[in-house]
Amino acid sequence: MARLRFGVLISGSGSNLQAILDACVEGTVDGDVAVVISNKGDAYGLQRARKADVPALHLDAATYADRAAYDHAVCEALDAHEVDYVVMAGYMKLLGAEVLSAYPMRVVNIHPALLPSFPGAHAIRDAFDHGVKLTGVTVHFANEVFDEGPIIAQEAVPVLEDDTIEVLESRIHAVEHMLYPQVLAALAQRRITFEGRRVRVLPR
């Protein structure tokens, strides 16, 4: 099977991007990061991409006439790099219809909570403040609603009695860096099937 080509969208430090880059190099994921796109010019993830000799693009939404024009530019960049899957790794913008239509059930996202609980940009803080004893990480297919698409995989993370928000956040990120490459490996091995909202990850 041909190696998959991933287009990774970021907005920040790119720690999940680094985990994906490492997994591709190590061979645990049968794929390659073909391009990294950020809506933030100062995103450290762009430096991670350049260090790995991966094309790194900054597309500033403020320079486009409207959201549709920005999404069109993102779609053009993904198409130009012949991407098979779009991987959102800390990308803090909602993708528009053009990208989602161009890559149906081929846009994946990671979220630092057990969806459908605690959606949104402050999931770790929200779960911590709510006092839950169990939170975690979700990888899902993205759709037109934030954190609502079909769930591919989840991993639980306990909230310990002496946790601080910083300690909990570090444990959640460690699970993210493990789970996201696992899901991309399953995609590369064509082990993920779906029917409606029911997604199955087949054994090796």
Number of domain modules: 1
| Rg, Å, rounded | 16 Å
| Record field, number of beta strands | 9
What fraction of residues sit in β-strands?
A: 25-35%
CATH architecture: 3-Layer(aba) Sandwich
Largest sheet data = 7 strands, mixed
Spans where pLDDT lies below 50 across 5 or more residues:
none
How far the N terminus sits from the C terminus, by CA atoms, comes to 15 Å
Strand order across the largest sheet:
3-2-1-4-5-6-7
Question: The CATH topology is what?
Answer: Rossmann fold
User: What is the helix tally?
Assistant: 6
Task: Please write the string of helix (H) and strand (E) elements.
Answer: EHEHEHEHEHEEHEE
CATH superfamily: Formyl transferase, N-terminal domain
Structural write-up:
- The protein is an alpha/beta fold.
- It has a single domain, classed as Rossmann fold (3-Layer(aba) Sandwich), CATH 3.40.50.
- Helix content is 35%, strand content 25%.
- It has 6 helices and 9 strands; from the N terminus they run βαβαβαβαβαββαββ.
- It has helices spanning 15-26, 44-51, 67-80, 97-102, 123-130, 165-188; strands spanning 4-10, 31-38, 56-58, 85-88, 107-111, 134-141, 151-158, 192-195, 198-201.
- Strands 3-2-1-4-5-6-7 form a 7-stranded mixed sheet, sandwiched between helices. A two-stranded antiparallel ribbon has the order 8-9.
- α4 (97-102) links the parallel β4 (85-88) and β5.
- α1 runs parallel beside α6.
- The longest helix has 24 residues, at 165-188.
- The radius of gyration is 16 Å and the shape is globular.
- The model has no long low-confidence stretch (mean pLDDT 97).
